[in-house]
Amino acid sequence: MIEPTTLSVSGDRIVATYELHGDPATARSRADALRVEQTIEFPADLVPDDDIQREVVGRVESLDEVGPEVARAVVSYAVETTGFELPQLLNVLWGNSSILPGIRLVDVSFPDSLLARFSGPRFGIAGLRTLFDAPSRPLLATALKPMGLSPERFADQAYRLALGGLDLIKDDHSLADQEFAPFRERVEACATAVRRANEETGGQSVYLPSLNAPYDQLDARLDVALEAGVGGLLVLPGLTGLDHLRHLAATVDLPIMGHPAFLGSFSASPTSGIAHDVIYGTLMRLAGADMSIYPNYGGRFSFSTDECHAIADRLVAPLGGLAPAFPSPGGGMTMARVPEIVEFYGPDVTLLIGGDLHRGDDLTRTAAAFRAAIS
Amino acid sequence: MIEPTTLSVSGDRIVATYELHGDPATARSRADALRVEQTIEFPADLVPDDDIQREVVGRVESLDEVGPEVARAVVSYAVETTGFELPQLLNVLWGNSSILPGIRLVDVSFPDSLLARFSGPRFGIAGLRTLFDAPSRPLLATALKPMGLSPERFADQAYRLALGGLDLIKDDHSLADQEFAPFRERVEACATAVRRANEETGGQSVYLPSLNAPYDQLDARLDVALEAGVGGLLVLPGLTGLDHLRHLAATVDLPIMGHPAFLGSFSASPTSGIAHDVIYGTLMRLAGADMSIYPNYGGRFSFSTDECHAIADRLVAPLGGLAPAFPSPGGGMTMARVPEIVEFYGPDVTLLIGGDLHRGDDLTRTAAAFRAAIS
Question: Which of A151, B245, B250, B301 could lock onto B287 through a cystine, CB 3.0 to 4.6 A?
């Protein structure tokens, strides 16, 4: 038994909802283990009836059987356990519980005292609508592909796509600093090409390089991108960290697309991990993505319509003072599906079509047709 | 159709093995989709018979049915697709495929030209044995707990544990920069306390603070730790990134423990994600962990004995010139289980016991008993 501890806490609490899959008879003991695991990770019987036991250890606020072999535990945590920092917040929500069997994080809400520490999406839906002079239509995005092309050929693609009037022309998420198209050469060439197209059309297309870099090169690549005059950033927080995304959103005056590469394992299993809407919706937005890319229903990735709706809802639902972000469904989308997808999401959506734009002889004409399809 | 491309590649290839769960009739088309998804993510029919098609797109080297509803696809990738960088390597292995249904990464091998770019564990098993003057015994580790204690009380714990002769005294993975025990105060107090104990005993215990920090504070916290004279680092790459771990191992002359917080979702489902041994074994070691912490079998986390054996094997199996790393099973381990665990792993293991050491009246005496139990 350790000596009693006296602490001062605000009373503000983070509220997380977990599904517990398995024998309902064990749900109570599992919920109790969870609230300890995520905080003190220490035998509860060795802590006296003190402020650690009362305030630092999580609390099971409710526990309900919600289906055969599924219970729903609402667990709250003192906001002070996070230190008001995103990595430790993620640790409290899903650090060791990620290793526990049959637990899924399905909902989370934050007190204002925590949300006030996050700047969230810098542009958000309203800011991007102003930037692109698009008061009400969906935004249009595409990717420079395939890996293996030279910087000059990517730049030529970017130029033609911008001429066609697409808003967002991003690197494919596979582009990093490969010798086929090194980062600096590619980014300088593409940024220049999109600027040239804008000068010709009077448009405001932006090029977003992929900032997928080693830890010790992230700042340097950002500098290269800023010097090249890029109009936004593509960020892969599964690889470079949700907190790096947060840092970018807080410090760089450019719109950010968040890409789900490497994150899919969190949502892959219905009985473990983190629910689609929490990771691609709440967490992406909390970290500051202006647009959250995720695989659309009906593509090759098998997200359901319910999951896609839930993600889109989280991106615009109230979240302290944080701006709403654009849902950006992608993944094998085609021109033919545009009307259906706009019908499904409504106008507050960024439509991301990659490879399918390359069907046909003239990239500019195809891009213009994409633009016309949503006007 | 895009214009043909000519490229020069080395011929060195990364070889990844994926399990494809589901209808065996679709295995061939899914393997073909996978090799495209992980590289060019572009309609294969729009790429001519050129070097992109031949060299950049992954190759299905073999495809075998290995069980009911399970096929095994061996897919190779040109090493140049990674740009020889860890985040993009992870992207090639498991970026978008993380979002595809029913696929699990179960094995990977790297060409020497890639491994030569990684320094791996700086100390490894041999280096730590020298550091701790422990030529053949298991190493002993514990954690400072619970969150909520003050820096002074953690320092007192650290002092007593070091007096008892434990090798590695780490922060609990839940400790970040909370107001209960701010990083600087905690780290300075604990490093001082362990040094004082070493002076009294002539021992060489080390204190490892948890470097779980926001992106823009990682370097500053490392500086605090170095100035305080810590003896090692605890790193949570699920939260701060595998590449940050790589960067630390390459640049900081301290042993590193890698902790699995937030990574559990990768291994949680048997039909998706990344196999236990690949993520806690191969990838942790490639990134440079000298010790890889993972939940031991028979604890509260439900890893199996096979999974634990496989992780331990990956940490010591040949991997280019990279040093072997210590398996560090933990998670609800008890003193009573020490003989069984040493029998299971053999002497090349770091035993991590946290809360259970606090049973009994005298932490130093319990720690000394732990030490005696493996002598």
Answer: B245
Angle between helices B305-316 and B338-345 (to 10 degrees): 50
Pick the residue from chain B with its C-alpha nearest to A79.
B178
Residue range(s) occupied by CATH 3.30.70.150 in chain A: 13-115
Where does chain B hold its CATH 3.20.20.110 domain(s)?
124-373
Classify residue A279 by its DSSP letter.
Answer: I
Check if CATH label 3.40.50.2300 holds for domain B13-115: no
How do strand A70-78 and strand A168-171 relate by DSSP bridges?
A: unpaired
Average pLDDT estimate for B325-337: 93
Hey, is B314 helix, strand or coil? helix
Mean pLDDT of A27-48: 94
Angstroms from B272 CA to nearest CA on chain A: 7
Inspect the interface and report whether the beta carbons of B301 and A98 lie closer than 8 Å: no
Among all chains, which residue has been given the structure tokens 């980014």? A187
What ipTM was predicted for this assembly? 0.98
Looking at the complex, report in whole angstroms how far the Cα of residue B277 sits from the nearest Cα belonging to chain A. 14
Q: Rounded distance, CA B136 to CA B96, Å?
A: 43
Q: First and final CA of chain A: distance in angstroms? A: 69
Q: Is B244 a known active-site residue? A: no
**Interval B155-212: pLDDT, tens:** 999 999 999 999 999 999 999 999 999 999 999 999 999 999 999 999 999 999 999 9
Range A124-373 classified under CATH 3.20.20.110: yes
Specify the pLDDT at position B215. Answer: 98
Verify whether the Cβ–Cβ distance B85 to A176 is below 8 Å.
yes
Catalytic, out of A21, A170, A173, A259: A259
Concerning whether B145 is annotated as a catalytic residue, the answer is: yes
Distance of residue B172 Cα from the nearest chain A Cα, in angstroms:
8
Helices then strands, counting H and E runs in chain B, come out as: 16, 13
